[in-house]
Amino acid sequence: MSFHFSRTPVATAPVATTYRRIATPLPVPESLPLLDELAAVETRAMHGQMPIVWDRAKDFQVWDRWGNCWIDFTSTIFVANAGHANDHVLAALRRAVDAELLHSYNYPTEIRARYLTALVAALPDHVDKAYLMSTGTEATEAAFRLMRIHGQCRGKGPGVIAFDGSYHGRTLGAALMSGSAASRDWIRYEDPHVHRFAFPFGADDDNVDWRAVFHAELEALAARGVDPARDISGMMLESYIGWAAAFFPRAYVEAAAAFAREHDILLAFDEVQAGFGRTGRLFAFQHYDVAPDLICCGKGIGSGFPLSALVGRGEILDLPETGILSSTHSANPLGCAAGLATLEEFERHDLVAAAERKGRRLLDRLRALQGRFPDHVDRVNGRGLVAALIFRDPRTGAPDGDTPSRICEEAMRRGVLLVHTGRESIKFGPPLTIDEAAIDEGMDVLAGIMADICGRSGGP
Ligand SMILES: Cc1ncc(COP(=O)(O)O)c(C=O)c1O
User: Fold this and answer.
1) 18 Cα: distance to centroid of ligand 1 (angstroms)
2) Under CATH, which number does the domain 15-85+351-454 receive?
3) What are the residues facing 159 on neighbouring strands?
4) What is the atom index within ligand 1 of the atom nearest the CA of 137?
5) Comparing 15-85+351-454 with 87-349, is the CATH topology the same?
6) Separation of 273 CA from ligand 1 center, angstroms?
7) How far apart are alpha carbons 115 and 336 in whole angstroms?
């Protein structure tokens, strides 16, 4: 990430609306010692986010200690789907803390039985087992492992198909599958059995024969001597490319699923970011007519408590011997309480339908911005309550990574938190509980900033 948010306090125009309040220069001068303290003792790899000190986050708003308040279009990082500090989740966590069982390793607990039963019941019909962990990367790592174990059981090679541009986490197996060469550099070798396909950008382009695009990748694989029936154990799809909110074309995914079925290859979806309602379905794969063998869940599953899960068909999840697929913090009782309360909130408030409905509004507003700034906004991607504006340089047409960063910084100064990707995109992922009026207000602010920065005006 080459852009650095200014650490010099900048005067702001006062803002006081129902949803936003900006009352100090930003960063807040009094916050600088804390920012310095963190810089001194924390790895710089942790840094790079906007210099505001989060003090409290509730529903779709974030506060600092100095009276500033932002509308949150980040859900931190696609975690607070059920709303920040959701009351029902908080109450469940308080009860769990008061029960004086902070940890139970793999010893049986009632809360784990209740949570897993509810989780499996909430999942698509073909899913009947789950393995609980703490982070998204553990879930994709476990899927990598299970795809290979399953292949091994069938006498197949360890091949896994993954996609350029995808992101699956920071642990070794997840990084080996991830599609950015930079994120694999440190490993200093490539896994010769991970075969990466080009991500099929252009989901809405009906003029492309996406089945043929998929089959061309298979032919290229065959030309390298790879036989799917013999060599490939699994295929891992990130439901959308994170930085761009770019989805797979429907025909491509359905061709991939048919190919996987035909050759006894496990189909895994990385739903760590896309799952739990984000795209207007419980899982993004439900936009397609497919039934993945493995589904990796994280982020929104625990509403902020570190919880993740690999879910799928029992016959696959039960392949490892007893004790092999477990870790110290799997199925922590607090995680189970947070997970169960999250599911209940989804059910009670139909957050999936809310994401679909509010997402239409968000996308309409973003498309209007594209119409207003067509030289700068190359594309609008999104489904449900995840979306991205993709920027290009109006003079060269090349990807423009600078303007989105400047817009994100200015939005912070005006009381709106956007997802800073460090690339040619701005991403939007508010809690699914956000008021539609807050979406509108955030989009009005964004339109004003774009008029200032992109230098053109006119109303959508
Ligand atoms: C699609 C996807 N997979 C996996 C991960 C890794 O999750 P975690 O950071 O919880 O390990 C992320 C995190 O951003 C993600 O977006």
Assistant:
1) 33
2) 3.90.1150.10
3) 232
4) 11
5) no
6) 6
7) 6
Domain spans in the chain, listed from the N-terminal domain onward: 15-85+351-454, 87-349
Q: How many other C-beta atoms can be found within 10 angstroms of the C-beta atom of residue 231?
A: 18
**pLDDT single digits (tens) 340-372:** 999 999 999 999 999 999 999 999 999 999 999
CA atoms within 13 A on the CB side of 165: 16
| Residues composing the chain | 460
The residue type of 12 is: T
The tokens of 460 are what?
Answer: 């959508």
pLDDT tens-digit readout, 295-315? 999 999 999 999 999 999 999
Q: Is the peptide bond before 394 cis (omega within 30 degrees of 0)?
A: no
Buried-exposed string 110-125: b where 16+ CB fall within 10 A, e elsewhere: ebbeebbebbeeebee
> Are the C-beta atoms of residues 59 and 433 closer than 8 Å to each other?
yes
Mutate to test the pocket of ligand 1, among 183, 272, 297, 329 (most ligand atoms within 8 A of CB): 272
| Whole-angstrom Cα Rg for the chain | 22
Structure tokens at 61: 């708003």
Global pTM reads: 0.97
Ligand 1 atom index nearest CA of 169:
6
**With DSSP H G I counted as helix, E B as strand and the rest as coil, what are the percentages for the chain, rounded to 5?**
40, 15, 40
Name the pairing type of β-strands 377-383 and 386-391.
antiparallel
* Cα 271 to the center of its chain, rounded Å: 7
Q: Which residue has the tokens 């006498």?
A: 155
Residues lining ligand 1, judged by CB closer than 6 Å?
135-137, 140, 167-169, 238, 242, 270, 272-273, 298
* Averaged pLDDT for residues 33-37: 96
- Minimum-distance ligand 1 atom for the alpha carbon of 138: 11
Q: How far is the CA of 13 from the centre of ligand 1 (A)?
A: 36
Report the run of H or E that residue 296 belongs to, with start and end.
Answer: strand 294-297
In the CATH scheme, what is the code of domain 87-349? 3.40.640.10
* Amino acid letter, 132: L
Please tell me the distance between residue 387's alpha carbon and the centre of ligand 1 in angstroms.
Answer: 17
pLDDT score of 456: 52
First to last CA, the chain: 32
- pLDDT (mean) for 431-446: 98
**Span 38-96, pLDDT tens digits:** 999 999 999 889 999 999 999 999 999 999 999 999 999 999 999 999 999 999 999 99
Could you give the count of Cα atoms lying within 13 Å of 235 in the half-sphere of its Cβ?
23
Residues 84, 72 contacting (CB under 8 angstroms): yes
Beta strands in 363-424 (DSSP E): 377-383, 386-391, 416-417, 419-420
